[in-house]
Every structure is written in structure tokens, then in C-alpha cells.
Amino acid sequence: MLAVASPIQALESRLAPLRTRLTEHPLYARIRTVDDLRVFMESHVFAVWDFMSLLKALQRDLTCVQTPWIPSAYPASRRFINAIVLDEESDVYEDRTVSHFELYVEAMQECEADTQPVLKLQQELTRGVTFDDALARIEAPVAAKAFVTSTFAAINTGRPHAIASAFTFGREDLIPDMFRRLVRDLDAQLSGSLQKFVWYLERHIALDGDDHGPLALRMIQDLCGDDPERWSEAAVAAEDALRARIALWDGIVDQLQERDALR
Known about the structure:
mainly alpha
């Protein structure tokens, strides 16, 4: 008698074709030079940035960030989210505290990639400009803007299980496979000269593969429970997140091809 797949197993099976498209995407092999890496980072930095908004939405929903304090209903998940916030927002690199986003920007500056669009986005938001207006005011790759828009669409659903699914399957659960491929395909010359970027990649492989990934799956199970509608919504959110990542990768490949055609 065949064992019946659990909801999380069924969801992972449903997402397998999209995950395969990402792990076998031609983008990884396409990054061969520092110039290629600059193009990649100038789009990918937006995914590094908006990840924090996904994370903060989950911190808002799964922990207590107001007074008076009341414990949330998801003790394992609140510990998981708080642990990620510690790592992502205030990690330690060479004896100094820094967020992964800030370190990524430093890595971009190290290889002379353009950081102005993403920094201008933050400046506009700091001034109180709405997210949509701030995004419209910056000159950034079209695919990067579309990706960020899709991320905030997930956040704005206001459904913790859907946000968690986009976070888990579009980000945390995906990162180890995605970055292993990228690290492997980088030239030894790039790896040796771009220490901050390589540290960023290796840090996420270690965190997401060994710790964050499995705990993120537990979070999905906690939030969906035995509710078929929640599992269905979680599946749609995960598929949307994976398709958005594929579209971002496709957009970067298109940029690289357009650049080469002009040479």
C-alpha cells in the first residue's frame, strides 16, 4: 500500500518543475567575468533588499512587536523568524555588525557595480514617499522592478501562510541550490578578488541549507495546519514567487545578451 503524501510533500512535488527550471537556469553559467557579475548584482540587489520586507512581515505576524507584549501562537516559528532577523539584519562580518543587504551593497561597490538605484529607493522611502512612487522614480532594470512589485504583492495579501510560503519556497528553501550553482560557475579569479560577495554567498548556503530551510518548512506546516484552503493559497504564493524569480533571472540574461550585442 502506497503511503499518502503529507501536505508539505505534495506541495514540494508540485513546485519541483519550477525549482528545476531555476536550479538549471542558464544564468549561472552565463556569469563569467566581473562585468557579467556587475549586471547580475545590479538586479539581484533588489531581491536582497525586498527579502527583508518579507521577513519583517513575518516578524510582525508571527512574533509580538508591540506593547503590551503577548506571546504569539507559534513558538517554534517565532523563534525561527527572530533567529533569521538576527542573522540577516545584524550579522557579524570581520568583527563588525552589518546587515546582509548592507554588506551586499559593499560587495557591489567593491566590484564597481552601480548601487545608486537601490540606494535612491531607500532614500525616497526614508523621505516618506510611497513604495509605488519611490519605485517609479528610480532607474533600475525592468525585471528588478517587476520582481520587487511581486514581492510586495505577496506581502500585501496580509495572509501569513501565503507570505511564509513565498518566503520559504521563493527565498529560503531555494537559496542553497541557487547559490551553490552560482559559486561553482564563478571563475577562481572572481572568487579570489570579491571576498565580500563570496562570503555573502557562502553564508547563505550555510544558514539556509543547514538551518533556515528545514525550519521554514516547519513554519509552513504550523501556519497551514489542516486547512486545505490555506495549503492551496500557500501553493499559489509559492508558484508566484518562483515564477517571479525565473522572470528576474530571464531579465538578467536578456540584459547580458543586449550588452554583448552592442559590443
